[in-house]
Amino acid sequence: MAFRFNTRRICTGKLWSPPTSLNGSRTSKVTPGWQRCRSVASTASAEKVLFPGALNSEFTDTLEFIRPANQKAIPTFRVLNQYGEVLDKEAGVDTEDGEALELYQNMVRLSIFDLLMFEAQRQGRLSFYMVSAGEEGIAIGSASALSPTDVVFCQYRESGVYMQRGFTLDQFMNQLFANSKDAGLGRNMPVHYGSKELNIHTISSTLATQLPHAAGAAYALKLQNQQQPEVPPRVAVCFFGEGAASEGDFHAALNIAATRQVPAIFICRNNGYAISTPTSDQYRGDGIASRAAGYGIDTLRVDGNDIFAVRRATKEARRLALEDGGRPILIEMMAYRVGHHSTSDDSFAYRQKVEVEDWKRRDNPITRLRKWLEGRGLWSEAQEKDLRSSSRKEVLKAFEKAEKEKLPPIKHAFSGVYEHLTQEQRMHVVELKDILKRYPKEYDVDQHEGGASSLDQLLDEKR
To answer: Where do the domains of the chain lie, and which CATH numbers do they carry?
Structure first.
C-alpha cells in the first residue's frame, strides 16, 4: 500500500490564468480572490481557511455569531431630496434639461393613462387593470438609461418601461381590449404586454418566472457578446417586486447568474406590499439588496422616487454588467405602492387610507421632478395644465378607437400551437363549427373578425 505525504496545493493570484475565448485569444476576465481555486488543501501554518466553500475566511478563536440586527442597513442612494434639490452640486443630475422634460411628460402621461384605465375597468369596459402609481420613476427612469437593444423581462407593473421604449397608446389599448389588432392575438389577459420589436418579452402572470428566464437570456447574450465583438454588447434586464423575491425562482436565478457571471441587471421594485402582505411579514432581513451580496452579486439600494438616482444607478449597473466579460448586478428600488395591487384588490382592507394619502402628499417621483423643473424655470402651471389636458385626450382617443375594433378571429384559439393542425385539432374545429351553427343565439360570432368563416380557413390549410 502506498502513501503520499505532505501533498500541498497553494492558490495564488499569480497561478490563475484567464480563460480562453472561442477564437483562441485570452479574455480579460478578472475573478475575485474569494472565488478562485475551489479545491485547495490548507497548509499547516495557514492564517485563512482554504476550504472550497469559504475561501479567504480568516481563522479566529472568538466564538461570535453575526447578528444582522447589529449591522447598519444598506444606505439608499439619491440625487434629489424630496424638495427637488440636488444634493451633490458638483455631480449634478447627469441629465440634460430637454431629456428631463421628456421624462417628466412620460411620467405624467403614464399616471393619466393608469387613472383612465382604472376608471374604465370600474365601468365594466375593461376586465382587469394594474396601475403604477408611486412607481412611475422606477420604470421610466431605468428604461431611459438602457440601450434599445437590451433584452427586457418585465413583471406586470412596468407599463412605463414599454412607454419609454416606444410602445404606442394604440398598442397598449389593443392589448387591453384583446381585439383583432392585438399582437398577442387576444390570448393574454390585460396588462400582459409584449413586443419583439422593442426587445421586451411578453409578461406572464406566474410570479417570478421571468427571473430565471432573464438569467438564461443573459448567459446567451454573454456568448453572443464574445462571439460577435463587432456588435455592441447587450445585457438582460429583469424587473420584479419584492414579493417575487420570496419565490424559489428568485434564488435560482441569482445563483446561476452569479456562478455563470452573466451580464444581467435585476431591478427589484420594493413598494412595501406583496398584494396584501407588508414587507414586515415577508422578510426579517435588510430588504432584497442584502440577498444579492450573499450570492456574490454587486448590489445597490436606490430611492425610487428620485428618477435621476434611478437613471444614474441603471447606467452604472449596465457598465458594470458588461465589464470583464459580464457579471450580474442587483438594484433595489425603494418606493411606495400608492394604488391598489390591481382592480381585483381593495388595499384599504389591509392598510389605512391615511397612510396612502400621506405618501401621496409627502413624496412621489412626479412631484419631486416637477419641483426640480420649476426650480430651474423649465416648467409652469400653464404647461402642466396643457400636458394633462392633451394627454387625457390622446388616451381617450386611443381607447375609443380600440374599443370599436372587432375581436380576433376564432381560428386563433387553435392556430400557432403546431406548425400544422393535428388530426385531433381538426376534430375540435369541426365540433366547434357544429356547435356555433346549432346555437347561433347563444354565440355571437359576428363580434369576431371573419366570424365563423375563419374556422373554414383553418380547415382549408394544407396538412
So the answer is: 1-64 (no CATH), 76-404 (3.40.50.970), 410-460 (no CATH)
